[in-house]
Amino acid sequence: MSAAPDSLAFWIGCALLLFWFVGAYNRMVRLRSAAFQAYAILDAALLRQLEFVQANAAVGAESLLAATTQLTTLLAATRMRPLDPERIDALGTALNVMLSAWQRLHPDDVVSFDAEGTLSRPAPLKGVDEAPPSPFPSRFIAWPEPSAAAEIARGQFNTAVAQYNAAIRQFPPVLIAWITRLRPAAPLL
Q1: CA-CA distance, 109 to 123, in Å (whole number)?
Q2: Does the pLDDT at position 128 exceed 70?
Q3: Cα separation of 120 and 111, whole Å?
Q4: Quick one: three-class SS letters along the chain?
Q5: Global pTM?
Q6: pLDDT tens digits, one per residue of 147-187
């Protein structure tokens, strides 16, 4: 006698469970892949920002050059594991340091965009005083290069990470994520 059950309902249930497991796993892998692709676009946009900053760095701007070197190093390190929260946090810190150094040296040469790429800080009109600062701090990054590509790429990466994290935190898929060792990712803030 065999130890395997002979019930047809048992085998149908096992097949359904297997198909559900494969489908849920494929969904999580697809969302993870979308986050990887979004990071590749973000990486290219950040490299363009770095090239712009390095090409326009003034002589004697050692702090800016040091910040760009640090950001370049962290971009290279993050490429290997772009969904690692520690690496993304370090990249975000290095990005903010570089942008702060640029803004200190060139306070009038920064442009802010929202996540869709529209200009969020309009240019001041000549002869008209600027409006008083908003009591709410801006959640947008002020970019050196006047291009919305970096902010759009950051928004797409953060959206892809949020979708991936939401998928692996749902109840049945959290078990699959635990079995397959899929970990939550961190957005670039």
Answers
A1: 10
A2: no
A3: 8
A4: CCCCCCCHHHHHHHHHHHHHHHHHHHHHHHHHHHHHHHHHHHHHHHHHHHHHHHHCCCCCCHHHHHHHHHHHHHHHHHHHCCCCHHHHHHHHHHHHHHHHHHHHHCCCCCEEECCCCCECCCCCCCCCCCCCCCCCCCCCCEECCCCCHHHHHHHHHHHHHHHHHHHHHCHHHHHHHHHHCCCCCCCCC
A5: 0.77
A6: 788 889 999 999 999 999 999 999 888 989 999 999 999 99
Phi, psi at 41, each rounded to 5°: -70, -40
With a CB cutoff of 8 Å and minimum separation 6, the contacts of 162 are 187
Length of the chain equals: 189
| pLDDT tens digit sequence for 37-90 | 999 999 999 999 998 888 887 777 888 899 999 999 999 999 999 999 999 999
